[in-house]
């Protein structure tokens, strides 16, 4: 059996590496139109950072795992074609700002149709709107010259989380496969199931109809993001009342009906999926006339934007309502720890908010490059996932400096803002940092990872999200 995956990104790369690693009897080829990305997958410097990924790729690469730009050849030869291309938010036209842009998906489908001379199972790995399989099937059938070639479409959404992708792939809570309720549909489900059964107990492989599987992925992301927005909304109330959001989260999380996960208040959720998938869900609800349902889910995104804005306003208020010309150090730019991914990271909106008030920003992140940061800060909303959009440095970005060392980044600054929960930030020598900063020295902990009592004893004025406010902050600004 040969598996070909179109799209060598955060999903295609790690998922295929795991399949190849666990299934030595299957040949797996990952193809992409991005030659630089493929070259990186074939090198010692993989294009994405994920703990444990390099070891898995190394074990399988050259044995039964290959990365190639020869899309036509490998798609033609594949028995199962995974499609793991990007499905960004539309930036123009009907549904702009909400609907999924399926240009890349349709391009992949047309490619499959044009080169296929044998029947294939086509697997939706990308997150797509409900009923995409129906549209894709039409594209495949109408564009394939050989009437004897059959395509069976399956939905197999990916539930991995960046930062723990390899663990999630090795031991997933569940794998979901959706297919048609026809005989050939069920047969195709069986084939894909047999791939996963190489290492996943069959009771963890859930089967559903196509539309349920497609909708399950959007719903899962909407529920996860909704928990974050829910606790973040409560963090604002905690600050107003003197309650402590961590104590509230712990108290409610011990109720088994609620559970303790995804209850950390923070400066906001980020990543390539949550916002995009909720907006897509909102758009689908609107198009089928479910306005109240659309409004409900849209509020999850609104609270997320509010939380980022609130954080910036807190910073400005605390620093005597003026940050113009003040140096502010941002610790962490990735959207979460253990990844170099900056797509939709809250750091972008926080930095832009501070830049709008003329702050000078020093940024340190252990995994994000200087070029990536400047690019991110130069792009407009939703533009990051449209490959033709190249970021150009705006004049205001001259106020942004990127550092390779946290201590250097903190020197002479008025405030630190922790925007990613990297473990190494907890181990910094804050006395040394305090001594090198302007006074009063502020810490704004957007992830609640630092030892706030220790920081206060050093002399910092501390703002911790959702925690009782320092007397200094209360006296002046509440
Ligand atoms: P990505 O942007 O990292 O990778 C997509 C790749 O597809 C790019 O390298 C692009 O060059 C390639 N591509 C686009 N059109 C192509 C074509 N016609 N032929 C060959 N290659 C083509 O995206 P990522 O993060 O891997 O996401 C892919 C899909 O998976 C999205 O729908 C996303 O919503 C979904 N997803 C992402 C997760 C994540 O954590 N990043 C988790 C679960 C699902």
From TrEMBL:
Gene3D superfamilies: Cytochrome c1, transmembrane anchor, C-terminal, NAD(P)-binding Rossmann-like Domain
The protein's Enzyme Commission number: 1.1.1.22
UDP-glucose/GDP-mannose dehydrogenase C-terminal domain location: 329-452
Keywords in alphabetical order: NAD, Oxidoreductase
Pathway: Nucleotide-sugar biosynthesis; UDP-alpha-D-glucuronate biosynthesis; UDP-alpha-D-glucuronate from UDP-alpha-D-glucose: step 1/1
SUPFAM superfamilies, per database record: 6-phosphogluconate dehydrogenase C-terminal domain-like (SSF48179), NAD(P)-binding Rossmann-fold domains (SSF51735), UDP-glucose/GDP-mannose dehydrogenase C-terminal domain (SSF52413)
NCBIfam families, sorted: NDP-sugDHase
Protein name: UDP-glucose 6-dehydrogenase
UniProt organism field: Coccomyxa subellipsoidea
């Amino acid at each position: 059996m040969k598996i070909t995956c179109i799209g060598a990104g955060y999903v295609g790369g790690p998922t295929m590496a795991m399949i190849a690693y666990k299934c030595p009897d299957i040949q797996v080829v990952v193809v992409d139109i991005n030659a630089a990305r493929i070259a990186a997958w074939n090198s010692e410097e993989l294009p994405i950072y994920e703990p444990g990924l390099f070891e898995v790729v190394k074990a399988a690469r050259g044995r039964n795992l290959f990365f190639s730009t020869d899309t036509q050849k490998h798609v033609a030869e594949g028995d199962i074609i995974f499609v793991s291309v990007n499905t960004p938010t539309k930036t123009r036209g009907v549904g702009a700002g909400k609907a999924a842009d399926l240009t890349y998906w349709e391009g992949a489908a047309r490619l499959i149709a044009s080169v296929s001379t044998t029947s294939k199972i086509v697997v939706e790995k990308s997150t797509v709107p409900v009923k995409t399989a129906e549209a894709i099937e039409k594209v495949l059938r109408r564009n394939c010259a050989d009437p004897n070639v059959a395509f069976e479409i399956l939905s197999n959404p990916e539930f991995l989380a960046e930062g723990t992708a390899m663990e999630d792939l090795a031991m997933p809570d569940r794998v979901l496969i959706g297919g048609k309720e026809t005989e050939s549909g069920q047969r195709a489900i069986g084939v894909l199931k047999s791939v996963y059964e190489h290492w996943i107990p069959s009771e963890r492989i859930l089967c559903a109809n196509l539309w349920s599987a497609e909708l399950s992925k959007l719903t899962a992301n909407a529920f996860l993001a909704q928990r974050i927005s829910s606790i973040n909304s409560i963090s604002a109330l905690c600050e107003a009342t003197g309650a402590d959001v961590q104590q509230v989260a712990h108290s409610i999380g011990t109720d088994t009906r609620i559970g303790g996960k995804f209850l950390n208040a923070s400066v906001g959720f980020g990543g390539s999926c949550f916002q995009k998938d909720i907006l897509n869900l909102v758009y689908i609800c609107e198009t089928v006339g479910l306005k109240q349902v659309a409004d409900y889910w849209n509020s999850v995104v609104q609270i997320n934007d509010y939380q980022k804005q609130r954080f910036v306003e807190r910073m400005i208020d605390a620093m005597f309502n003026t940050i113009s010309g003040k140096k502010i150090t941002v610790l962490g730019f990735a959207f979460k720890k253990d990844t170099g991914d900056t797509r939709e990271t809250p750091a972008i909106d926080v930095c832009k908010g501070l830049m709008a008030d003329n702050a000078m920003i020093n940024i340190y992140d252990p995994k994000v490059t200087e070029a990536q940061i400047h690019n991110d800060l130069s792009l407009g909303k939703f533009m990051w996932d449209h490959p033709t959009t190249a970021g150009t440095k705006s004049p205001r970005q001259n106020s942004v400096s990127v550092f390779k060392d946290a201590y250097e980044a903190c020197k002479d600054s008025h405030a630190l803002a922790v925007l990613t929960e990297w473990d190494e930030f907890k181990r910094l020598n804050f006395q040394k940092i305090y001594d090198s900063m302007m006074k009063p020295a502020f810490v704004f902990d957007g992830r609640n990872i630092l030892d706030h009592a220790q920081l206060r004893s050093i002399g910092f004025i501390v703002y911790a999200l959702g925690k009782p406010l320092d007397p200094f902050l209360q006296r002046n600004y509440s």
